[in-house]
Amino acid sequence: MTLHKNYLGTVFFDLDGTLMNAKSEIDDSVADAVHELHDNGYLPVISTGRATNELQHVLGPTGIDSYITLNGAYIKSEGKVIYESTLDNETIEALIDTAEKFGDTVAMHTADVTKLYKYKPIISEFYGSVHIEQPEVDPEFYKHHNIPMVIMVSYEGPERYQKLFPELNFFKTGKYSIDTVQKDVSKMHGIKHLLSGLDMEDKPVYAFGDGANDVPMIKFADHSVAMGNGIDEVKQLADFITTDNTDNGIVNGLKHFDLI
Questions:
Q1: For 130-139, what is each residue's pLDDT tens digit?
Q2: CA-CA distance, 178 to 239, in Å (whole number)?
Q3: Which phi and psi angles does 148 have, rounded to 5°?
Q4: 8 A C-beta contact, residue 110 and residue 146
Q5: Where are the alpha helices (DSSP H) in the chain?
Q6: Contact at 8 Å (CB) between 216 and 235?
Q7: What was the pLDDT predicted at 5?
Q8: Residue 70 predicted with pLDDT over 50
Q9: Which of 36, 49, 153, 227 could disulfide-pair with 210, CB 3.0 to 4.6 Å?
Q10: Cβ proximity of 234 and 218 under 8 Å
Q11: What's the distance, Cα to Cα, between the start and end of the chain in Å?
Q12: 184: exposed, middle or buried (C-beta count within 10 Å: 0-12, 13-18, 19+)?
């Protein structure tokens, strides 16, 4: 692996709707493009709301070994933990109580394990839609582990929770999920921690994304790419709108900036 100081810049990729295809897999053309990007002197980094245990099928084909997970709450590069933020038990219990009142349920994440507070039918819909194996129920899980992020599993938007918990960040990341982290945690903060940890703050930053939790990252990047399938806000903020994630979007975006 190239020494960090020799990289020309960093390129951050969201996963769902961005680096991955409709089946949450990596197309061969995308894997080849990421390897070419690295060979050209750029450090490819995953920046996702997913946990590290949900990345293995991405890391293998792409060769990526630096990642910002849980929306910036857990960051690792070449096997070394660079940053971890956690939610305290009191906060988690308040979130669980609120979810119960709203008829929602909660998934709890460590860096690499996910457990459910309680099963509801929406759980099957949610995990089926993102092609992740359904976690087991363990309502006491948070009492015995560091929890960087919880997901409010809900059909609704994040506004109800954000109003009640101004000290937290809520990102609607799909039809069923509201990712919940500390207020000072986002993909943008994650990028800052990673660049600082790798001493690469003076190198250009590129970012690819499609959804609401990508907005801070897209705003922060020196050069940003919105996927053709992305939400309007991301497209309005990005320097370039590429094609859909299922239509060579990554390859076209990298070519636009002469990265491959």
A1: 889 999 999 9
A2: 27
A3: -70, -30
A4: yes
A5: 28-39, 56-62, 89-102, 121-129, 159-164, 187-197, 215-220, 232-237, 249-256
A6: no
A7: 62
A8: yes
A9: 227
A10: yes
A11: 18
A12: exposed
